[in-house]
Design a protein that fits this description.
Rossmann fold; 15-stranded mixed sheet; three-stranded antiparallel sheet; 15 helices; binds adenosine-5'-triphosphate; binds ligand LCNOYBR7; kinase activity; transferase
Length: about 425
């Protein structure tokens, strides 16, 4: 089936988040891990390519994104979506702007929008400032993120140094007037030479207005939520045929492993809750692993009953993370954890785990690569932006969920298992 919307995400949990929100409409969504080496075949109307480009150099991020764009064009897509984090995570060098400009240049389009708002998960934008719940981004726990600490909340200020063309704002007062008013504002800004427009949104109704106003733009950029209304719009006008429905979920065995490399505030709560509920757990300490390697945790894992959903986690508070980073370096500490959790994922699968729950975007990127997964079918959502996915790893069918650091309820790990039992 021809691809209607080609999507590129800068991390793996972000990709499943986007795919899950698109799949809410009931349409088939396919997620590719990295740019497929094969030319497009058996494609879905919505294709999402997951990159791990959030924290790599802008030059590399641009080159990987353009490769993904080329594959999606060959799949038939004429409209594209560039997905980054709902908390606008980027390093000081910043990949979001350079990637957007490279896609715009390739498509020959003069303007795009930036809307990371995800109201269901507490991310809203007002007068260009991004909020997490009631806090400004820079005052939220995102200020302590291990890889991309966010110390400014103003999206225009964050974006301007990342791009070469002018940045502007379509504020909530315009969005509240509806799609025609927003389109008119975008046209005015375009005449003024504004290529990059941050668009305010504080509620799902705003996202519907934005999607309607921007649905024909060659490129939309943002968090997953602004893409959510698009399938219904494409179904309504016949761009998408009604037979593009999702496949039923396969039955998956009970063996489960939970791997958490996220240090977000929410994951810390979820890990604590799962331990309180009595699940077997093993805490990874980067400083110890640097000295002794992963043999100890692998031995612990080999002795576990996988039907009890054991949890292996590096999740820690900001002070412990900083202490490890000071000794090992930020990237090295992260890599060490990612490699260890990846080795645990493969060992657990080989020992019979068929349900693999991963917390953290970078962590998910590493684990998915180690599992050799290349394509995922998107199933039911466990929490907003976190779907179960189904894929083949090492010739066995597994269910995999990749949880964004801050997503999911306190009981997410139990919720995930229950959800699969009810499918
Ligand atoms: N105890 C620790 N000390 C130092 N670094 C750690 C520790 N635990 C995890 N890390 C690293 O911190 C990073 C966390 O990033 P990751 O993207 O996985 O989670 P997240 O940012 O919470 O998730 P998301 O990107 O989905 O919001 C990873 O590179 C991980 O290896
Ligand atoms: O948008 C979000 O918050 C998530 O999908 C994400 O990108 C986490 O890495």
């Amino acid at each position: 089936m021809t691809t209607i919307l080609g999507c590129i995400a800068d991390d793996f949990t972000g990709a499943t988040d986007l795919a899950g929100l698109l799949a809410r409409s009931g349409v088939r969504v396919s997620l590719r891990i990295g740019v497929p080496s094969e030319p497009p075949s058996h494609t879905s109307p919505f294709e999402v390519i997951a990159l791990k480009s959030r924290t790599i150099s802008a030059v590399d991020a641009v080159s990987e994104t353009l490769e993904a764009l080329d594959w999606l064009k060959r799949a038939g897509a004429q409209r594209f979506f560039w997905k980054y984090c709902s908390t606008f995570d980027s390093t000081d060098a910043g990949n979001i702007g350079p990637v957007a400009e490279a896609i715009m240049d390739d498509l020959g389009t003069e303007q795009t929008i930036y809307c990371p708002a995800f109201p269901e998960n507490g991310r809203s934008i007002f007068m260009g400032n991004l909020f997490v719940g009631q806090q400004l981004l820079s005052e939220s726990p995102m200020k302590n993120h291990p890889l991309t600490p966010m110390c400014d909340s103003n999206l225009m200020r964050l974006l301007t140094p990342q791009v070469t063309r002018p940045v502007g704002l379509a504020d909530r007062l315009t969005v509240a007037q509806g799609a025609s008013a927003l389109r008119a504002k975008l046209d005015t800004l375009k005449l003024e030479g504004v290529a990059h427009v941050v668009v305010d949104a504080v509620a799902d109704e705003d996202l519907s207005v934005i999607a309607e106003a921007c649905r024909d733009m060659p490129l939309i950029t943002g968090g997953s939520a602004v893409a959510m209304p698009l399938p219904a719009l494409y179904l309504a006008d016949g761009t998408l045929s009604a037979d593009a429905v999702k496949r039923p979920s396969p039955k998956i065995g009970k063996g489960t492993i939970i791997l958490s490399g996220s240090c977000s505030a929410m994951t810390n709560i979820q890990v604590a809750n799962h331990i309180e509920l009595g699940a077997p757990s093993y805490q990874l300490d980067p400083l110890k692993i640097a000295k002794t390697g992963s043999a100890l945790v692998l031995a612990w894992l080999a002795a576990q009953d996988l039907t009890k959903a054991p949890l292996i986690y590096a999740t820690a508070d900001a002070t412990s993370v900083k202490a490890a980073q000071e000794v090992l370096g930020i990237a090295a500490a992260g890599n060490l954890i990612e490699q260890t959790l990846s080795a645990c994922a493969v060992a657990a699968r080989d020992a019979g785990a068929r349900r693999i729950i991963v917390a953290g975007g970078e962590t998910s990127g590493a684990v998915t690569k180690a599992l050799g997964v290349s394509q995922l079918d998107i199933g039911a959502e466990i929490a907003p932006g976190v779907p179960w996915t189904f894929c083949v790893s090492g010739e066995v069918q597994i269910a995999l969920t990749l949880k964004s650091g801050n997503f999911g309820a306190k009981t997410f790990f139990a919720d995930a298992q229950q959800k699969l039992d009810t499918l």
